[in-house]
Structure formats: structure tokens, C-alpha cells
């Protein structure tokens, strides 16, 4: 299938490769900064910056000019302390703050009001304890849960704040806790220390104050980054005494969340020195490869970039929570209407009957309307159980149990890292069963960030398939034995024995040149550690290529500022390095110019095929065969790189070198000048071949994505990586498939489509615009699956982000652009226009099966998530592993952190955490679906049982003069929700499952009801309401009819109020407990025990409460003396109970039978054939699963290379190079590349 891309020049095609900055300015700040930029003449000095830090001077930062108002006249320093606080309560605030938060929940406030009403004698129809006991239990259980959660946060904060660090105090370094560090302190860090604050690097034990840091906590990347101290501080601040006398003033930008930017100046000894991000060590990083370094604290605590990047912590609630609240409001409304109706009835009744009946006179001369008013409040109390107070505590218990099941799931335990799954919140479990969109990071989440050299093509011949040394292709081979190479990395696997045979024979010049290039053309740093060489690459790709060259006998040994030494099979050669032309995202290639020992000058170059092929010499051979091989590698979703060389004459190099030196010292636009010079020499190249590297996916990622897609869950990948890399991974993990039409965001067609709609809207009146909810036609009218690949730059442009606004303002100020009186500039005229544009983007993206956003910042990731949440009202899940994913994780309805070697920032901010992406499938399709089904079943039943219980009072009121008289005994009302009917429904909410976990995974379509919200909604609520009304009718009127004209066996009429109360209560207990039995899909001993136990507890407590003994002790509280034993010895009344229960349950049994027979759901069908499916699965498990086949497709290969600059500047400056090491040991000295995850051994 052809995937030709449209040209995207001009305004339609923002630079794909430029990472848009993480813009967190407000519009006001933006306007102000734009004006400043415009009004300054060129060359004007920069205005003073807002953040000032004085070294070794704590009192300076507490001066009045640096104070800010906190509350009324109370002021405090604007500089944060270094202690962090994530907890909510302390000893003094826990009780008042927790009660305040709990009473923000309307139901709790309602029950408190009821309690107050019950204390008023004129109104009270029930004793106060019927409300107080359940309220105290609910508040107590919730408070204990909140306390446990907060204690865990306290422990974590304490652990971090009490970490130790050396701080310069009173002229010498003293050990201090992190919490006591302040802005302006000089600190000393050692190897493997975490960095406690955002620190300006002053000096280190490495030459030229070089310091390596691991940024895994920030961005999930495990390859090391380097930081540099200023030359002046490196030279003058090595000793403790010099550091104590250091008194520089730092002026820099205010604290912000931009991880990729820092601007400041240092004023010291009357000189100003510029500062940038390369001089900063950020909190959350770890010092590596550096024995000791010193730094000055610039930002502390909440002001640090990592804390600023956390985004706002949002209180997350589930859809069911919101629905439940609305339903509680509906019940409130029903309650008030019913109470008002009964109060009016009481007024009329008293007027007509009550006032005329002498035997009903109570000694109070109150009017009928006043009595009706009192009756209204009386019925509010009597019918309050329609809003069940135990609902909320039961929901909390169920959620806690479901969270524990996730924590205990051994199938989500990653033994390799000893990492179990962890539910870090207990409030969102059922939302896991309703996910519609997943937003995933790429590096470290879908991939392992581990690169492996898999295949290559040299001089038109491909290598990498299982092959014998003689070149015979095998179906299944064995890995090459590297024992002939003492320097080989034993973990490196390669299946092609023929390539090794060719290299060892030394007969093929092209193969020799190929591996020589890999060992010479790179920016890998090497360090001699105890006779071992340790490689440190700027990207995992480079490490994989240099490791491959090493295994094939071309070992990179050492480099200085102007030489590079390698071991070529059995002899060592040193080459003079004349120039290193580093990679950047525009060039997509890197080159090195070397002088060979025999005097020849040669350029080696490696880069993306798209840029290399444009620069090949017409005489270059093997172009077509290499291109074919590249397409094959791309089909196998491998990351490819072309290798080439060029011989340069001495005169040509001399002329070019002069231009290069001029470009290096250019004051204006130096990068562009260097690029032009590089372009000149990188031409007429001769192609050698190409490499193919596999960016290893985590285990099970393609299968997980395929299964989730079957469950109608759409997956978007949001990454800071290049477009080619992201697209490549998209194919390898089955997110993109052969049958999808790929649309690129900057393609003219889509942008024009958006702009046509925009123009059409502009010419419509506002009223017509508001009326349009959906676009008339879809963006992709052609049938078939679509996928969208967009970049951060395009996203900014299409959604009118502030970067465009800044440029537009500048142009307008300079007179090059008119103010926006007309809409011709393609920009929004108002907020509605911008909103409609956002809706267009979301509609377009949501029409696609898969969306990949590359080159996006942490803030843009969060913006994309919030747009889908806002305009699609969809339940979203974000999954990531680094600090750059924190904002996205907090914005989504559910945030999942991958806990592995990539740091814990994402996990700390997440709701759920586990070690591998593949566990997401089980979390959603098993735990999420079960949690949703259980919660829905629980709520439906809970509302039903309370309506059935409460509405008996309503029917009874017609026979009691609407006098707020209760139909049951007081203690039955108190204990009904606590003891008699709570346990069976609680166990259904905890343990029920319609099908087992294996069938849940086998049939992803079972997940759909959760997405549609079809198992609990207003329809289900009203069904529960009418079911409750029906059962309450039966429970009241059948005993009432039976009692109407009857005679007991002993000649006594048992038709008294107390006997009626006992029979209705007994009928209710049997009905609700047998009803939950009908709704239980998964029976265990515990369920059976709960149902029978609840009935037994009811009779046990009832006979105790109705005994004479307890009446003697508490005569006023226990008034039903002997009622139960008297009523229940009549067989007639047992028959009445059986009849009542039978008529209550019979319609439900019939309806369930018809539903499962005539209109079965997917779940019913699976349940019916459960045995058959389980046997099929057992047969499948016995068969060996076939290996995953990668998708086949035809497209340009992706550029496998670092998306950040390499170490070329560092190498060419000579700043990182130690003095030449002494003579290397003999063959026994081993050379190894340390895996990034084991960086602490470096």
C-alpha cells in the first residue's frame, strides 16, 4: 500500500524535529514578555532577572524585598525551603479537617441534620440512636482509611526530607538533612547520590568540572547526560576554603516547569558569566561516574523543576461516583415530595377524622396545618433510609477489597525486579472497567529502551539471518560463538556465522571498512576503570553499534582531543581526528574526518537513508540493493542507518578547514553557519552499507495492544521522540497495521480540511455556530481504518498555542502584520472559534484507530488528554514511566506508572503501578471489568433493598392517619442495613464474577458494557426503584390482608401492630437475602454462609430484643416484649411469610429466565458455553504458542539515532579527556560496555 506523504512547506509544516517548549506562561505574562522583546533595540542589555541567589549568605534571602504576603499582613520568604510536603493532615488538623472533608459529602451532612431533627421531641418519630450509630460507624471507618493513607505519605516525605547531604556551614562541610538545605547553600555530592535541589555545578573531581548525571527520574531515559561547570569556577573553587569564600550573586529566571531551559548570569569578582541548562544539576537526577562535585542551590523544594512539573494534583472521582451523587439528589427530591404529600394527607385526616375522635386527643391544641408541618419532618426522619447511610461505607469497603486483589495478583507480579502490582488509590477501581482511551508514553513504557544490533547490509549483501559459515541459510540457527574474540560482549547475540567467517578471513575490504566506520564514527566516551574499559554512549543506538563493532573484532579503545584508537582484529591503530561533525535533529547524520597513519584523509558518515541518499556520489555502487535491504529491514520494524565514506585530498581539506574555523567563531547564527560548512564537505559520498537495530519492545506489548483494540479501547502514543522512531515502534507493537491508512498531521489535505471548516464557520452567524454540535461529514470519508501521526509543532499550530501568539504579536508590533480585525491570517477571532477548532481536532483524531503524537512536551501530553476528556466525555487512562509523564498521569481519569529502572516519579503520581505494560491488559479486562460489574450489581441491589424496606412505611401511613408512625420496630430499623442485609451484598461487591479471568481475556468484547455504562445508569436506578415499590407493596399488603380477619389456633387474633411488624420484617429479610442469591453469579462457601448467616442473625437478635429479660433492664428502649415468639408460633403466619416471599421473587425469576433465553448478552452466551470454552483453552495451552510475526509493509526506513546532541562539543573541546592512560594491559584485560541499568557500577 502506498503511503506517499504530501509536501509540507511553509506555514502548513512546522518543523517536525523541533521539540516545542513546555510553555507554562499565562496570557498576561506572555503579552508582557512579547512587548519587552519587541521594544528592546538589538544589542540592548538584558533587563535584570527576577530570581536572585547569593552564595553562602542565608540572611540575604530573608531580606524584606524577598518576602511575599501569605495571609493578611503575614509575610514569608519567597524562597521555598527544601522540605517537601505531600501529606494532608497533622496531629492537630486531622479530626477537624477530616470531618470537614467528610461533611462536604452531601449524604453525611444530611444525616447530621437528621440527627439534630431527631433530638427535637415534637418531630422525632424514631430514637436518635437509629441515626447516630450508623453515622459514627461510617465516619469512623472513612477516617481510619484516610489516616492510613496519610501516614504512608508522612513516611515517604520523612524518608526523602531526612536524606543526608554535605552542606558548607561555618567554613567547612557538615552533614545535613535535605529538609535543612536553603537557597544559596554550597553542597557537596558524591557518586550515586541523588541531587537534593536544583543546583548550579561549580566544580567536580573530573577534569574541567565534568559531571555525569542519570535523568531516569525525570524522563525515563537511562543513558547518562553530562553537565559542565564554568571554567572560572572549575579553576578557583576546588578547595573547601575557596568554596567558603565564594560570594557570587546569581540572577536567573523565576522557578518554572521547563526541563529543557535555564537562563541566568553569575556576577562574581566584577565579571558577568552566562549560565544555561548545561551548568545545572536538577533535583531527582543521580550523580554517576563522578567521585565528587560541588554546587550552589538555586531552587529548593517546591520551586525545583521536578516539583513544578508535577502539575496540579487533581481529586479524581469515578463516573459511578458522580452518577451515585445525582441519584442521591433524586432520592432527596423523592423523599421531600413523598413527605410533603403525606404531611398534606395528615392535615386533611386530622381535620376530618383526628380532631373529631375523642380517643385520639393528645392534650395539645395544635392546628391541623401545624400538625401537618410536624408530620412532614416526622416523615423525613421515618423515610430517611431511602438514602442509605451505609451505602458510602460499603462502597469504601468494596473498593478497598478490590485494591487488595490487584496488589495480591501473582499474574501481575514481575519476579525479575521483585515488583508486585500496586493499587495506590482505593477510589477508582470500577473506573478501570470503563476506559475508552489509553494515552501511553513510548520510551520505557512500550519499549525496554534496550537496542540490539540485528542485521546489516554490506556492499549489497545482507547479513543477519541464521546462516552457516559457508553461507547456507538455515530455518533455525544457533548464536555465534565469540570465544575467538577476548574483548567480545558475551550477551551479544548474532545468528549469521558467514559474516564472522568473512571478517576473520580479512579478504573483504567492504566488510572491513564497514566495521572500521562503526568503531570510529561515534561520540561514545570511554574510561579506563581498574584495567577495564567502560563505554558511555549519548544514546542506546550508538552503544549498540559500537558494541557490535567490538564483537566483530573492531574494538574502540580510547580517544583524546585529536586522536582515536581502535584495535582492528589483532593490531592497534591510532587515527588523527581532524573534525567531528555532530548529529542534530535537522542534519539527521554525523561525520568524522580522520587522518590515517599513511597520510590519507577520509570522511566517515552515518545517518538516515533520506539524507544520505541525497548526498551520494553518482559513482556510488549498491544503491538499489541497499535500498531493497533497507525496505526489508523497515518491514521488520528495525531502526536503520546508512554508512558511507569519502576520500578527501589535502588541498580540499585545508580549504574546508579554514571555513570551518571561521564558522566556529561566528558571533551571529553560529549553528546555521556550521551546518552550511558541514553540508559542503558531506557530498559525493560512497555508500558502504546499512545497519539495522531492534528497539526491544517489552514482552507481550503487541499482544496486549491487539487485545485492548478488540475491547474497543483506542490507544494514543504521546512521546518526545522523533516521528520516524515513534512510527517504527507503532508498527512493531501492532498499534499501526498494514490495513490502516496513515495520515500525517501536516499533510495538506487534513490541514486544508480543517481550514475549510474554519472559514465556513466564520461566515456563519454566531447562533448557527452554537447550534452545530457535530461536523456534517467525517474527516476521513473513505472506508477502512485510519491512523494519525502528528508532531508537537503541528499541534501548537493547529490549536493556536501561545508560541504562535508570541510570533504574531511580534510581527504586529513591527508593523508586518495588521491587528486581527480580519480573519485572513488563519487565527481565531474569539474563544468560541478556538474551541470549535479544538473540537475539530479531537473529532478528526478520534475517527482514527490509532494516534501517535511525537515531539510533544510534558504539558502538551496533558493538554491532549484534557481535550479528549473535555470534548468526548470519555474515560481516559495515561500510562508512563518518567517525570515527563507525570502531568499526563495526573490529568487522565486513571494514571498508571510503570515501576522499573526508570525512576519512581511517575509511580509516585500514579493511581496504579506495575512493572510491565502487558499487565495493563489484566488490570483493565479482568480487575477493571470485575470491579465495574460488582459495583453496578451492588448499587442496583442496595437501592432496591432500601426502597423495599422504606416504602413499607409509606403504605402503612394510609392506615395510620399519616401520623409518621413506623411500620417496624425501632431496633429493626437501626440494624437492617448494619447486620441483617449488609453481608451478602458486600460479598457480591467483593467476590462476584460472571466469567473467570481467562475467559475475560479470551473475549475482550465482554468489556464493552462498561464503556457504554449500560450496567448502572438512570434506567437501572428507576428499575431498582420500581422493583422496590413492587416488593414493598407485596410485603405490606399480603400480611395486611392475612391479618385483616383471622383467628389463631388458640382462638386469639394475632392481628396486633407488633405481630404485623414482625411478619413484614421477616418477609423482608427473606426476600432481600434470597433476591441477592438470584443475582449472585459466582457462589463460594462464604456467599452461602453470608446469606444463611444474615437470616440466622436476624432471628437470633429479634428473639433477644423481644425477650422479657432485656425489657426489664431497658423498659423504654425495648417495648416489643414477646412479640416474636407469640407471632411466629402461628403456622398461619409462617404460611403468610412464605406466600409473601414467593410472590415477591416469582416475577424476578421469570424476567431473568426470559432475558437469558431470548435476549442473552455476550456475558450470558459465554457463561452458557463456559465449560466448552475452558476445554478449548486447555487444549490451546498444551500447544506451543507461535512466535509473534512482525507486520510487513513498504516504507522509508527510520533513522536510528539519538534525538539529542551527542558528545562532539565535549570531545573536540578536550574538556572531558583525562591524561593519556598508561600502557594498557595485555589480552587478559577485558573490555565491556556496562548496561545502562547497571550504571551504579560505573
From TrEMBL:
> Where in this chain does the record put each P-type ATPase A domain?
161-225
- Write down what this protein is called: Phospholipid-transporting ATPase
- Catalytic residues per the record? 441
InterPro entries documented for this protein: ATPase_P-typ_cyto_dom_N (IPR023299), ATPase_P-typ_P_site (IPR018303), ATPase_P-typ_TM_dom_sf (IPR023298), ATPase_P-typ_transduc_dom_A_sf (IPR008250), ATPase_P-type_domA (IPR059000), HAD-like_sf (IPR036412), HAD_sf (IPR023214), P-type_ATPase_IV (IPR006539)
> What cofactor(s) does the depicted protein rely on?
Mg(2+)
Q: Which UniProt keywords apply?
A: ATP-binding, Cell membrane, Cell projection, Endoplasmic reticulum, Golgi apparatus, Magnesium, Membrane, Metal-binding, Nucleotide-binding, Translocase, Transmembrane, Transmembrane helix
**Segments forming domain P-type ATPase C-terminal:** 907-1161
The reaction(s) catalysed by this protein are: a 1,2-diacyl-sn-glycero-3-phospho-L-serine(out) + ATP + H2O = a 1,2-diacyl-sn-glycero-3-phospho-L-serine(in) + ADP + phosphate + H(+); a 1,2-diacyl-sn-glycero-3-phosphocholine(out) + ATP + H2O = a 1,2-diacyl-sn-glycero-3-phosphocholine(in) + ADP + phosphate + H(+); ATP + H2O + phospholipidSide 1 = ADP + phosphate + phospholipidSide 2
- Residues given in the record as ATP binding sites: 441-443, 542, 583, 606, 639, 719-721, 855, 861, 884-885
Native organism: Sparus aurata (Gilthead sea bream)
**So where does Mg(2+) get bound?**
441, 443, 881, 885
Alphabetized SUPFAM superfamilies for the sequence: Calcium ATPase, transduction domain A (SSF81653), Calcium ATPase, transmembrane domain M (SSF81665), HAD-like (SSF56784), Metal cation-transporting ATPase, ATP-binding domain N (SSF81660)
Spell out the subunit comment. Component of a P4-ATPase flippase complex which consists of a catalytic alpha subunit ATP8B1 and an accessory beta subunit TMEM30A. The flippase ATP8B1:TMEM30A complex can form an intermediate phosphoenzyme in vitro. Also interacts with beta subunit TMEM30B.
Q: Which Enzyme Commission number(s) are on file for it?
A: 7.6.2.1
GO BP annotations, alphabetical order:
Golgi organization; phospholipid translocation
- Transmembrane ranges, per UniProt, are 103-120, 126-148, 326-350, 370-395, 938-959, 971-991, 1021-1045, 1057-1076, 1088-1112, 1132-1154
Amino acid at each position: 500500500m502506498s503511503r506517499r506523504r504530501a509536501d509540507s512547506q511553509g506555514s502548513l509544516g512546522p518543523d517536525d524535529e523541533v521539540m516545542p517548549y513546555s510553555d507554562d506562561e499565562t496570557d498576561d505574562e506572555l503579552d508582557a514578555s512579547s512587548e519587552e522583546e519587541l521594544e528592546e533595540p538589538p544589542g540592548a542589555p538584558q533587563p535584570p532577572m527576577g530570581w536572585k541567589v547569593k552564595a553562602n549568605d542565608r540572611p540575604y534571602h530573608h531580606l524584606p524585598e524577598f518576602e511575599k504576603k501569605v495571609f493578611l499582613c503575614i509575610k514569608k520568604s519567597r524562597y521555598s525551603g527544601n522540605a517537601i510536603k505531600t501529606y494532608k493532615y497533622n496531629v492537630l488538623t486531622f479530626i477537624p479537617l477530616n470531618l470537614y472533608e467528610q461533611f462536604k459529602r452531601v449524604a453525611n451532612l444530611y444525616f447530621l441534620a437528621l440527627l439534630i431533627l431527631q433530638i427535637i421531641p415534637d418531630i422525632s418519630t424514631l430514637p436518635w440512636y437509629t441515626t447516630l450509630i450508623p453515622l459514627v460507624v461510617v465516619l469512623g471507618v472513612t477516617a481510619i482509611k484516610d489516616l492510613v493513607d496519610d501516614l504512608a505519605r508522612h513516611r515517604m516525605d520523612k524518608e526523602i526530607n531526612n536524606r543526608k547531604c554535605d552542606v558548607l556551614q561555618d567554613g567547612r562541610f557538615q552533614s545535613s538533612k535535605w529538609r535543612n538545605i536553603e537557597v544559596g547553600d554550597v553542597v557537596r555530592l558524591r557518586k550515586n547520590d541523588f541531587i537534593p535541589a536544583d543546583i548550579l555545578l561549580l566544580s567536580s573531581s573530573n577534569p574541567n568540572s565534568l559531571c555525569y548525571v542519570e535523568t531516569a527520574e525525570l524522563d525515563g531515559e537511562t543513558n547518562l547526560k553530562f553537565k559542565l561547570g564554568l571554567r572560572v569556577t572549575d579553576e578557583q573553587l576546588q578547595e573547601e576554603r575557596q568554596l567558603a569564600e565564594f560570594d557570587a550573586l546569581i540572577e536567573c529566571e523565576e522557578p518554572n516547569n521547563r526541563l529543557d531551559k535555564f537562563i541566568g548570569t553569575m556576577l562574581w569578582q566584577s565579571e558577568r558569566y552566562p549560565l544555561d541548562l548545561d551548568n545545572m544539576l536538577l533535583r531527582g537526577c543521580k550523580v554517576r561516574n563522578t567521585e565528587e562535585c560541588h554546587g550552589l542551590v538555586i531552587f529548593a523544594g517546591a520551586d525545583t523543576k521536578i516539583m513544578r512539573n508535577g502539575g496540579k494534583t487533581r481529586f479524581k472521582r469515578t463516573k459511578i461516583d458522580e452518577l451515585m451523587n445525582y441519584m442521591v439528589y433524586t432520592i432527596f427530591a423523592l423523599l421531600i415530595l413523598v413527605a410533603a404529600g403525606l404531611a398534606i394527607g395528615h392535615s386533611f385526616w386530622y381535620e376530618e377524622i383526628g380532631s373529631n375522635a375523642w380517643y385520639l386527643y393528645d392534650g395539645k391544641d395544635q392546628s391541623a396545618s401545624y400538625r401537618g408541618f410536624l408530620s412532614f419532618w416526622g416523615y423525613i426522619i421515618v423515610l430517611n433510609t431511602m438514602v442509605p447511610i451505609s451505602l458510602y461505607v460499603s462502597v469504601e469497603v468494596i473498593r478497598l477489597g478490590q485494591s487488595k486483589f490487584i496488589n495480591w495478583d501473582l499474574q501481575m507480579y514481575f519476579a525479575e525486579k521483585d515488583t508486585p502490582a500496586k493499587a495506590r488509590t482505593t477510589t477508582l477501581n470500577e473506573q478501570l472497567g470503563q476506559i475508552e482511551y489509553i494515552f501511553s508514553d513510548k520510551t520505557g513504557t512500550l519499549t525496554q529502551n534496550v537496542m540490539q544490533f540485528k542485521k546489516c547490509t554490506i556492499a549489497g549483501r545482507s547479513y543477519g539471518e541464521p546462516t552457516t559459515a559457508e553461507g547456507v541459510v538455515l530455518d533455525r540457527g544457533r548464536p555465534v560463538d565469540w570465544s575467538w574474540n577476548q574483548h567480545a560482549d558475551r550477551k551479544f547475540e548474532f545468528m549469521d556465522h558467514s559474516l564472522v567467517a568473512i571478517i576473520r578471513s580479512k579478504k573483504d575490504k567492504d566488510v572491513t571498512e564497514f566495521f572500521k566506520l562503526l568503531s570510529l564514527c561515534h561520540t561514545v566516551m570511554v574510561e579506563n576503570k581498574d584495567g577495564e574499559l567502560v563505554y558511555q554512549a549519548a544514546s542506546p543506538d550508538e552503544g549498540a553499534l559500537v558494541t557490535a563493532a567490538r564483537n566483530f573484532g573492531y574494538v574502540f579503545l580510547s580517544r583524546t582531543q585529536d586522536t582515536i584508537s581502535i584495535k582492528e582484529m589483532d593490531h592497534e591503530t591510532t587515527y588523527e581526528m581532524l573534525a567531528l561533525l555532530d548529529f542534530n535533529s535537522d542534519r539527521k547524520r554525523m561525520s568524522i574526518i580522520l587522518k590515517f597513519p599513511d597520510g590519507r584523509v577520509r570522511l566517515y558518515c552515518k545517518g538516515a537513508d533520506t539524507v544520505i541518499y541525497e548526498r551520494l556520489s553518482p559513482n556510488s555502487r549498491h544503491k538499489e540493493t541497499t535500498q531493497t535491504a533497507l525496505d526489508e529491514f523497515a518491514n521488520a520494524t528495525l531502526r536503520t542507518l546508512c554508512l558511507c565514506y569519502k576520500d578527501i585530498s589535502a588541498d580540499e581539506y585545508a580549504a574546508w578547514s579554514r571555513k570551518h574555523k571561521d564558522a566556529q567563531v561566528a558571533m551571529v547564527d553560529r549553528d546555521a553557519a556550521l551546518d552550511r560548512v558541514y553540508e559542503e564537505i558531506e557530498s559525493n559520498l560512497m555508500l558502504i552499507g546499512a545497519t539495522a537495530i531492534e528497539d526491544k519492545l517489552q514482552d507481550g506489548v503487541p499482544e496486549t495492544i491487539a487485545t485492548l483494540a478488540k475491547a474497543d479501547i483506542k490507544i494514543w502514543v504521546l512521546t518526545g521522540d522523533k516521528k520516524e522512531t515513534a512510527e517504527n515502534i507503532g508498527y512493531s507493537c501492532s498499534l499501526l497495521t498494514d490495513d490502516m491508512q496513515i495520515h500525517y498531521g501536516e499533510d495538506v489535505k487534513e490541514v486544508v480540511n480543517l481550514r475549510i471548516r474554519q472559514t465556513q464557520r466564520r461566515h456563519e452567524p454566531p447562533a448557527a455556530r452554537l447550534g452545530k454540535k457535530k461536523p456534517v461529514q467525517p474527516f476521513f470519508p473513505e472506508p477502512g481504518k485510519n491512523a494519525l501521526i502528528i508532531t508537537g509543532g503541528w499541534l501548537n499550530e493547529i490549536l493556536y498555542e501561545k508560541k504562535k501568539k508570541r510570533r504574531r504579536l511580534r510581527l504586529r508590533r513591527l508593523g508586518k502584520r495588521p491587528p486581527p480585525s480580519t480573519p485572513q491570517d488563519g487565527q481565531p477571532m474569539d474563544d468560541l472559534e478556538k474551541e470549535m477548532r479544538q473540537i475539530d481536532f479531537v473529532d478528526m483524531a478520534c475517527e482514527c484507530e490509532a494516534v501517535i503524537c511525537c515531539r510533544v512536551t510534558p504539558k502538551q501530553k496533558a493538554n491532549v488528554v484534557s481535550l479528549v476528556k473535555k470534548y468526548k466525555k470519555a474515560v481516559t487512562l495515561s500510562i508512563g514511566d518518567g517525570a515527563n509523564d507525570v502531568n499526563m498521569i495526573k490529568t487522565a481519569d486513571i494514571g498508571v506508572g510503570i515501576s522499573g529502572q526508570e525512576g519512581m516519579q511517575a509511580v509516585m503520581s500514579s493511581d496504579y503501578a506495575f512493572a510491565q505494560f502487558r499487565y495493563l491488559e489484566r488490570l483493565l479486562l479482568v480487575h477493571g471489568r470485575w470491579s465495574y460489574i460488582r459495583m453496578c450489581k451492588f448499587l442496583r441491589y442496595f437501592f432496591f433493598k432500601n426502597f423495599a424496606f422504606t416504602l413499607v412505611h409509606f403504605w402503612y401511613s394510609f392506615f395510620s392517619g399519616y401520623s409518621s408512625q413506623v411500620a417496624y420496630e425501632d431496633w429493626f430499623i437501626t440494624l437492617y442495613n448494619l447486620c441483617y442485609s449488609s453481608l451478602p451484598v458486600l460479598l457480591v461487591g467483593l467476590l462476584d464474577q460472571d466469567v473467570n479471568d481467562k475467559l475475560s481475556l479470551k473475549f475482550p468484547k465482554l468489556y464493552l458494557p462498561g464503556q457504554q455504562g449500560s450496567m448502572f445508569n438512570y434506567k437501572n436506578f428507576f428499575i431498582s426503584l420500581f422493583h422496590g415499590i413492587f416488593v414493598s407493596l407485596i410485603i405490606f399488603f399480603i400480611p395486611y390482608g392475612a391479618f385483616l380477619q383471622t383467628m389463631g389456633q388458640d382462638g386469639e387474633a394475632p392481628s396486633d401492630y407488633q405481630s404485623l411488624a414482625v411478619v413484614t420484617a421477616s418477609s423482608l429479610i427473606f426476600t432481600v437475602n434470597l433476591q441477592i442469591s438470584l443475582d449472585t453469579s459466582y457462589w463460594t462457601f462464604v456467599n452461602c454462609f453470608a446469606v444463611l448467616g444474615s437470616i440466622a442473625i436476624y432471628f437470633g437478635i429479634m428473639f433477644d430484643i423481644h425477650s422479657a429479660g432485656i425489657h426489664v433492664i431497658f423498659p423504654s428502649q425495648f417495648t416489643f416484649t414477646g412479640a416474636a415468639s407469640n407471632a411466629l408460633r402461628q403456622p398461619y403466619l409462617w404460611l403468610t411469610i412464605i406466600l409473601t416471599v414467593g410472590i415477591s421473587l416469582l416475577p424476578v425469576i421469570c424476567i431473568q429466565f426470559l432475558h437469558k433465553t431470548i435476549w442473552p448478552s455476550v456475558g450470558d452466551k459465554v457463561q452458557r458455553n463456559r465449560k466448552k470454552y475452558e476445554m478449548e483453552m486447555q487444549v490451546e495451552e498444551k500447544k506451543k504458542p507461535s512466535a509473534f510475526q512482525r507486520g510487513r509493509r513498504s516504507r522509508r526506513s527510520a533513522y536510528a539515532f539519538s534525538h539529542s546532541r551527542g558528545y562532539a562539543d565535549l570531545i573536540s573541546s578536550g574538556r572531558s579527556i583525562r591524561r593519556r592512560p598508561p600502557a594498557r594491559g595485555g589480552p587478559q584485560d577485558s573490555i565491556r560496555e556496562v548496561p545502562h541499568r547497571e550504571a551504579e557500577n560505573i
